[in-house]
Amino acid sequence: MKHSGLNDKLFDMIAIIISGLLLIITLYPLIYVLSASFSDPVIVTKGELWLLPKGLTLDGYKAIFDYKPIWVGYRNTLFYSVFGTVISLVFTLPCAYALSRHDMKGRNIIMFLFLFTMFFNGGMIPTYLAMKQFGLLNTVWAVLIPGAVGVSNLIIARTYFANSVPWEIQEAAIVDGCSNTRLFLAIVLPLSMPMVAVLTLYAFVYQWNQFFNALIYLSDSKLYPLQLYLRNILLMDQMNALLEGDSEAMQALLERIQLKESMKYGIVVVSTLPVLIIYPFLQKYFAKGVMMGAIKG
Q1: For the chain, how many structural domains are there in total?
Q2: Claim to verify: residue 215 and residue 282 sit in the same structural domain
Q3: Closest by alpha carbon to 188, among 169, 208, 206?
Q4: What mean pLDDT is reported for the chain?
Q5: 18 or 2: which carries more pLDDT confidence?
Q6: Quick one: average pLDDT of 40-61?
């Protein structure tokens, strides 16, 4: 017994040490980026910043928010996130429920086809040509439709419907003359609200972060999401447009480079801040989502 107790204490100690190291590795980049966005760019450039802000300044944020397309990107991203989430739920939930029904013929074949797309796809060029043929290029649908059904979300929903909604309740409703549509909307869906909350959160975060579809299928900057605007600022050196009208000292080459470095960190904060704010309140739903998909239905 004593030997067993000693092993447990040793295991707990090792687990705590490893967890602490992982916490530091995860938190330090976040804290550093946040501190660098408020720090003097000269200090950041020299590598003198380690953790807390030094030489507090908001010049980087002022330059970012004076750039009007940033607000256009915020509006577009909010639109894509909200409507993309709604479209994802409308397509995913009925499909998952149908695949969870044991009396549906061919459901295993259909599920295999969904799973097949997780490993193989048509490729970028054929997909682009298909989007062009459908007339979806340079429209909001080019961003919304490709992410309408996520296979991982489909698996979570199918597993939940199969294991957490008693078949006896559904069978009793069918005997009473309830149609499949009414059964799904009036009985199954209200009993599955925790899972719906999980999928809503997953779909929203996916739409908020994704930019690749917009990068490939959109050429009109008025439709760009926030992430694409930020990418262009970081990678295509659009700082000149951001710095127009600043003081003469700001237009000096060295200070422009330093300000650009400060703005890079500020841009990261701007793009991730909304998700970071809501995540602590919704963290339990992420954990529920992992557990829902862990049981095979």
Answers
A1: 2
A2: yes
A3: 169
A4: 80
A5: 18
A6: 79
Q: pLDDT tens for residues 254-296?
A: 666 666 777 778 878 887 877 777 777 766 666 665 565 554 4
Q: Are residues 46 and 66 in the same domain?
A: no
Distance, CA of 77 to CA of 88 (rounded, Å): 16
Please count the other Cβ atoms lying within 10 Å of the Cβ belonging to residue 120: 7
User: Of all residues in the chain, what percent carry a pLDDT higher than 90?
Assistant: 8
Cβ–Cβ < 8 Å for 216, 128? yes
Distance of CA 292 to CAs 35, 71, 135, 156, Å?
37, 37, 38, 6
- This prediction's pTM: 0.76
Give the tens place of pLDDT for each residue, 124-133.
888 888 888 9
Domain span including residue 152: 60-297
